[in-house]
Amino acid sequence: MIFEWLDTYNLNVKEIDDQHHQLVDILNRLNTFITKGAPAKDSWLGLINELSDYAYFHFKTEESLMTRHAFEYAEEHQEDHAFFKNKIEYFKVAFETDDMNAADEMLYFLMVWLQNHILIVDHKLCVFLNKKGII
Fold first, then answer.
1. Ramachandran area for residue 24 (φ above 0: left; ψ -120 to 50: alpha; else beta)
2. Which class would CATH give 10-131?
3. Would you list the domain boundaries of the chain?
4. Is-contact 54 23, C-beta < 8 A?
């Protein structure tokens, strides 16, 4: 397991917390594939695609909440989402071209990015949403 869920990751917005749990689950499964040796490149790509698809779904949820409630820091939050999307596309290309050296770099990026995004960027959004009565 690369990412252990801690209570400090709970942000008191159920929809966002539930989605974060799902992202962590996918990241941990991807780590298992990479460290144990996935049976085929298609398996790796399938799980990377699952992660990116779910992350994009999650970002749409957050961005909808930001728009609906006029979150003042929405633009910088969305820039963080865009950075993630660009990195995931980079890793997809790396795996499609059999650059398996990118695996460790990708796992490290995902772990660090997700921790920072939850604890800093999403925390700011969820404090704002909690003040609006959204839990």
1. alpha
2. mainly alpha
3. 10-131
4. yes
CA distance 111 to 63: 22
What is the C-alpha separation between 19 and 11, in angstroms, rounded?
11
Q: How is residue 115 annotated by DSSP? A: H
Whether the model clears a pTM of 0.90, i.e. scores above it, the answer is yes
What is the C-alpha separation between 92 and 8, in angstroms, rounded?
30
CA separation for the pair 88, 6 (Å, rounded) = 24
Q: How many CB atoms are located within 10 Å of the residue 10 CB?
A: 15
pLDDT digits (tens, 9 = 90+) for 43-85: 778 889 999 999 999 999 999 999 999 999 999 999 999 999 9
